[in-house]
Amino acid sequence: MEYKELLQQIDKNKMPKHIAIIMDGNGRWAKKKIKNRLFGHRAGAKAVRQIIECGVELNLEYLTVYAFSSENWNRPAAEIKGLLNLLVEFMNKEIAEINSNNVCVKLVGGEEGLEQGYLDKINKTLSTTWNNTGLQFRIAFNYGGRQDILQAVKKIGVKIQSGEITPEDIDSSLLEANLYTVGMPDPDLLIRTSGELRISNFLIWQVAYAELWFTEKLWPDFTKSDMLDAIVDFQNRNRRYGAL
Ligand code: FPP
């Protein structure tokens, strides 16, 4: 179905607040075209541009993409370097338009392994959007769900040790206040491309009640219409959160 037709099927009153996406399949996409993996990641960045645009058009509140996982450090050095550079390049190129659409962009993830100069450079670029009140676009970068929970537990441990809180104070909201995703609503809809049916350590605490939506399409082929397909499907589901 055409994008415009699909748009009409969207129920504006039943929009997911937060869509999270595991952008998988860049490598396979490139391989099919007999190109190197970085060529696939570059094509993936173009798809990212499209889904930001779609998020803006839908007045979506939060959109989070998994751009670099804690486990991606195990890839060849050239691919890691390529991915780190691609993020800088993408932001330098797109930030003006992102800003003009009132989109706020932030990184979500750990700092270990990344040079301070690198983070400072990216954050300087992103900070021009930080007062924007439209789509909250989050890039999970150097992110792992278990690592997220562990660092939150460590922060809570320090507070207990200093006497600021007691173990009885630990509840879901305290843990959530210490996660990298502090202040963000949980994803309602989790999309994964490339036919893999896994969560792969992405927002594992936060997706507890998310609806999962999978597609065989490889990430660089993912379009705005695919995003709408996922949302229409989401809107036809019956979410019960463990109740009847
Ligand atoms: C997974 O595909 C994808 C990644 C590890 C990187 C995702 C990065 C981008 C889409 C590019 C830039 C992002 C932004 C936010 C500008 P894969 O390499 O694991 O693919 P494969 O499973 O087919 O090998």
Task: Name the beta content range.
Answer: 5-15%
Total tally of structural domains: 1
In what order do the strands lie side by side in the largest sheet? 3-4-2-1-5-6
Question: Mean of the pLDDT scores?
Answer: 97
**What is the CATH topology classification name?**
Undecaprenyl pyrophosphate synthetase
What can you see in these coordinates?
The protein has 244 residues and is of the alpha/beta class. It has one domain: Undecaprenyl pyrophosphate synthetase, CATH 3.40.1180. Helix content is 43%, strand content 14%. The protein has a six-stranded parallel β-sheet, with helices on both faces. The two termini are 34 Å apart. The protein binds farnesyl diphosphate. The site of farnesyl diphosphate (FPP) has 20 residues, from helix 2, helix 3, strand 2 and helix 4.
